[in-house]
Amino acid sequence: MTDMPTRLENPGRTSRIDRYVRHMECCLVNAAKAPSDEMRALWRSAGESYALLAELERNPCDSFALGALIDR
Known about the structure:
This protein is mostly helical. It has helices at 16-33, 37-58, 63-71. It has one domain. Helix 1 (16-33) runs antiparallel to helix 2. The protein is flat and about 35 Å long.
């Protein structure tokens, strides 16, 4: 299995981890701005999913992150 290139190795493209982290941060910002508890919970849940995906990209054998994704 090959590792995903990091931003430093390939400055023209971002890695999957970087994209997942960026999406997670956007979700958390949206959660903070959400007008209702339901929308905040929805955005937080989406952000947590992106965080778990980033963790799985870093360590594909992480059974905790994989189990958390399956439980969703």
